[in-house]
Each structure stands twice: as C-alpha cells, then as structure tokens.
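User: Please predict the structure of the protein below. I'd like the answer in structure-token form so I can feed it into my own downstream comparison script.

Assistant: Understood. Taking the following sequence of 342 residues as input:
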Amino acid sequence: MSTASTDDAAFIRSLPKAELHMHIEGSLEPELLFALAERNGIALPYDDVEALRSAYEFADLQSFLDLYYQGADVLRTEADFADLMTAYLDRAHADGVRRVEMFFDPQTHTDRGIGFDVFMPGFLQAMDDATERTGISAGLILCFLRHLSPEAAMATFDEAEAGGYLERIIGVGLDSAEVGNPPEPFAEVFDRAAEAGLYRVAHAGEEGPPEYIWGALDVLDVQRIDHGVRAEEDPELVARLVVDKVPLTMCPLSNLELCVVDDLADHNIGRLLDLGLTVTINSDDPAYFGGYVGENYERTADALDLSRDDLVQLARNSLEASFASDDEKATWLAELDAVDAG
C-alpha cells in the first residue's frame, strides 16, 4: 500500500477542508463495536477485533451493506450514539476538517426499535460538545434507504418532523443498494424536504448507471451528487455537471474496496478535476474501507500523482460545496489561501 510522503501527508492535513460524504454508522471501528456489544450484552459472531476486521473483504456494495447493518445493531442507547459521533469528529478534526456534513440512516435504527428520541440526542450532544472543544462545524443529513419503499421514507420524514428534529437536520439524502433502485420513486418525500427548506443530495452513479444521476438532478432536484463515478460514461451529463457546478462527493478508497475501480491509479477523480467538475474527496464508511478523509487524500494523491495545486483545489471544492454559511466558508477559504501561500 503506497501513500504520500511524510511532507505531503502533513501538507494534506494542514489544508482546511470539508467532508461531505461520510456515513456516521460507517465510522464504527471494530474496537468500539466490541466495546458497545459488551456494554449492551450482545454476542458477536467474531472472536475478537482482528477476526472482525478480517471480514472486511467486499466483492460489491451489497456484501458491504450486509456487514454494515449487522455492525449497527450494537448501537442501542443514547450514549452509544454519542460515543460513535465523538470518535468520528475527533478523527475528522485531526485530519484538518473544518466542516462535516454527515449522513445518518434512521431506518437502520427505527426498524429495530431504536427511535429518534434515542439516536438524535446522542448525536446532537456529541456534535455540540465537539464544536465547543475543537471548533469543528457539523451538520446532519437524513438519508432514506432506497431498498425500502418510498412510503417508508415518508414515514421516516414524518417521524423526524414530529420529534422536532428538522431544525437540527440540514438536508436529506438517498443511500443503500443502488442497482435496481432508481431515485425517481422518492420524488414526493424529496419535495417535502424542499418545502421544509432542507438541502437535497443523493447517491447516484456509484454502481448504478448515469441515468440515475440524471434522475437525481431532474426529479429529486438535488444540489449534490454523492459518488457520481459513472458520470464520465455520459459526455452530455459531464457537460451539465460542469456548467451547473454540481459537486460530486467522491470516495476513492470506498470505490477501491467495493471493486468500483480495480486500482486506485485508474480512478477518474483526476480526469474529472481536469475537466472542471467540482469533485471532492471523502471517506464514505471509513471504518470499513481503510481510511478517513486524510488517508483518502494521501493515497489518491500518490496513486494519481496529484500536484499540490490539485490538492488545494480539492479542498477548495469541498468548502465551497458545503451547505455552511457564507461567513463560515469565507473564514475557511481564507485559511486555505494562507496555507496555499505559505
């Protein structure tokens, strides 16, 4: 496994950046998973941490999701969700992240009897504590599971609204198994989110075809595309993404681990950057895919021979593509300019 030099790694971590594609449940490290299982009296089908980590060999997205949902089952109490959030935000801060916009999957929890009144207070308290301790800015994006019905998505939105949590949610998204689950059936719940003043994003073009990206843009009216690797297959779509400045929240190590690309050197993020797309680097499910956002930058920079100017542009894209306030963005971009000039 090749990575950037020590100097390059330090430079990457010095870059103020945003992480815009990270599933908080996907940051559940094996060590914490075992600790929470013990805390909650849950028997695991693995003897130890290393046995669990050795299971992280995925053939495709579905093989990962099977293990992902199994792992999430150890999350039972408000304290569990707070511990999960705290662990991730501390790692992100160490990687130079100024702003993080995290996905969370309510249906993963409500379908097993864990309600909004359990996970939301845990998440929110940990986020507030991290902001006070480190200054990191954090927002939550509620994702609907696309392998479940649009009616179930609407019920989830209703639960969030009834609990008074929409005020602490910045947007909605669409995730889970993509192939065979196009975005169009979720138009109504995305319209509800728009009426509530929430941002909209959607996973599209990871394993699914470019048509799913068109659907997310034209039917769900999203402001960002999560992944978008397969956009390159459609020149007309690429042109639209450039003209409309639609950000792609790409996840190189995730794509490698899920066999979306066979070699990181073949990843198209560099080509798309050269074409003028607003591409960003993110970690997706870092506990499962071998690296947080800093390592995603490092290994991608090494594999694609990215220049320092490229890395600065990727960090700039991430800050500009975030849903943070204009004042926050201006502060972080000034920091980035200072690092670039230094």
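That's the full token string. The radius of gyration is 19 Å.
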